[in-house]
Design a protein that fits this description.
alpha/beta; inorganic pyrophosphatase (n-terminal core); Diaminopimelate Epimerase, Chain A, domain 1; 6-stranded mixed sheet; 13 helices; binds guanosine-5'-monophosphate; binds manganese (II) ion
Length: 345
Amino acid sequence: MSTISELKELLAQPRQIFITTHHKPDADALGSSLGLAGYLRKKGHHVTVVTPSDYPNFLAWMPGNEEVVVYEPRENDAQVRDIIGRAEVLFCLDFSCLNRINELGEYIRHAPGKKVLIDHHQDPEQFADLDYSNSKAAATAELVFEVIRDLGDQELIDTGIGECLYAGIMTDTGSFRHPSTSRNVHLIIAELLSAGINLSDVHRRIYDSHSEERLRFLGFVLKDKLTVLREYNTAYIAITADELRQYHSKTGDTEGLVNFALSIEGIVFAAVLIDRNQAIKISFRSVGDFSVSDFSRRHFEGGGHHNASGGISREPLDTTVDRFLSLLPQYQTQLVTAPLAAAPP
Ligand code: 5GP
Ligand code: MN
């Protein structure tokens, strides 16, 4: 962990700044990037946010969205390489390994500017000059808030920046229900409320702005695609590329599916496996002691957090599902339903 004075020194004069985040950015990835970008622009820096891929429409309300450069290898590779090459400071937010952001990762690794990592995933790769990672943080947006506050600039967090950060914390804590929802998180939300954020608007923009088609897709998935394995307290959903096409599935439409599988009483391990053509993308979630980050690291080239992780498989969907199922018996003793604390009297 670097000291805040090192960052203060680096930002003491107006800089060319590049900010990026992980592939298929979620609300924490984009919210922490645009929140930080809004702050740095107020400090007089020249900031470009580049995402390694497109992101869901329900994030497009975030201030600064119009200036985001979405990296498209066949369209703007030269432009993005130029931005990276000219950057004096490169912020990497909400991911911990450069190999998770395709070609961009290598461009960043070889960039001449100073690299700053702000992230909350486990086992960060050591590539940054300054590192403000903390795997105990609920969200990268929480860490971005703290960095701005510790730089002595909390009063620069306005409603727009605050709503970006709020969106990241809200979604990564599962709307303040995961065990990562600390006292610190709630104190930060109190500060964001003082900055004027409208939390119900943010909630509606993110959770209640889906298409009708997405809801019908959800209905189909829950009715026809969900498998519950009581002997392993496990539930999973496997979706083919054809099914995605049939429902005109767009970026973000499958987000949150895995939580439905986990919402069944007694289920402690949930997986969603989706055929994305180039590879099978897998999301894992758990409640309690079973570590899905260990599971995905060990078996699916993945990682993430103790209770939320992801990985990939390069085999066909049905082979991947068979392999997933064949792994469960060796974890059976760990896949036990987490007892709830006794209800208060
Ligand atoms: P999601 O299921 O929402 O895509 O991802 C859950 C968590 O696991 C996120 O924190 C994400 O960064 C991490 N994650 C998802 N896919 C991968 C992967 O392929 N590799 C690694 N190392 N982490 C992943
Ligand atoms: Mn995050």
